[in-house]
Amino acid sequence: MKVLIVNKKDISGGAARAAHRLYIGLKKQGVDSQMMVMEKYSDDPLIHKVATGWLNKYTSRFDKLVLKLYKKRKEDIFSPAFSSTNFMSAINKVNPDIIHLHWIPRGFLSIDSLAKINKPIVWSLHDMWPYTGGCHYDNDCGKFVEGCGKCPMLFSGKKNDLSKNVFKRKAKAYDKIRKLTVVGLSTWMAEQAAASELFRNKNVINLPNCIDTKVFYPADKTNARQKLKIPLNKNIVLFGAMDATSDKRKGYKYLKKALDKLDVKNTELLIFGNRDDTIPDQFNMRVNLIGNINEDNNLAELYSAADVVVVPSLQENLSNVIMESLACGTPVVAFKTGGNEDLIEHKQNGYIAKLMDADSLRKGISWLLEDKNRLTKISGNCRQKVLHEFDEEVVAQKYIRQYKYLLSPNEHTSL
Length: 415
Hints:
The chain is α/β, with parallel strands linked by helices. Helix content is 35%, strand content 15%. It has helices at residues 14-28, 54-67, 87-94, 162-176, 187-195, 221-228, 252-260, 296-305, 320-327, 340-343, 358-369, 372-389, 392-407; strands at 2-6, 32-37, 47-49, 98-101, 121-125, 180-184, 203-206, 235-240, 267-272, 287-291, 308-311, 332-335, 350-353. A 7-stranded parallel β-sheet has the order 3-2-1-4-5-6-7, sandwiched between helices. The chain has a 6-stranded parallel β-sheet with strand order 10-9-8-11-12-13, with helices on both faces. The protein is globular.
């Protein structure tokens, strides 16, 4: 069985890291697993970079140009996906049995090109884009249930706007795919996909991302702090994401409000993943900017050095940060949204706060930090959840069973 994992990037970004982990996990289970990407940062010979030609550059410009028609549109990412690489020739060279799509827009695969794939497709949803009219998170507008149009993200009052056009193109392409399995990485994402007009008649299942628990494990906190030059006698709160302080969906402003009212003394904040080397606001505590961390080993040490990780995202699928932190034995405080409750069991391995409620977020941080015995007990619970449900081998075996089902001539039931 040969499986081709398709993602725009191989190791840079959350979706890429998740796709790459599955690629590695499958290889360890004896599967002929390979990757196909548009942007390659590793030197792995089984990761194939698709060449981009003049047509890709032209259509990529068209993607940007058509968005300029909506001058009042929100800053959130919106992908019309007219552009595409010459990926079919690359697929034919690999000749896989299964094509497993992950994050593919923004110049990699166009919507229309999906209909050309004549192999069974598994599609892991890292955000909502596959079933919306172009947005990656809908900010709870819910229009994907009825076909989009009058898109609030585009600030459009027209029914037949760009979002409607994108939606229709997706419907046409999906109808031509012979065999498609849609994977909601979280329970929430699977439910949203199944409710959407585009996927409600498709095979939608829930299978998570995986993690290598031999890389992400609880390191000695004192050693980790000494290596990172973090004070040994402080409470350390960790916050991080791609564009951690600038992406509104990541909830930075709620973290700021929560920490401004935090009544736990001797506390410092660490921020990683922010592209700027400046702090956008003044805090009533010391703030340390770590920057981007690309190596998993270094990231695991950072989680181990922290007492609490805060994930205040307003919409979240299946957070890599939460999974990684729990694997390292560090409890997480997060809002009740998306797939967070797939990972966090309230007051067992972390704290679930009320959505968009900074005071509830503050209470969760305080609840963990103000009682060291409680923090130690909660920390001890974190890793077990990950080992049982998200470990690399556990998840890879579930995907292998799904692949075998898709390739079975006597296909009759979904796993």
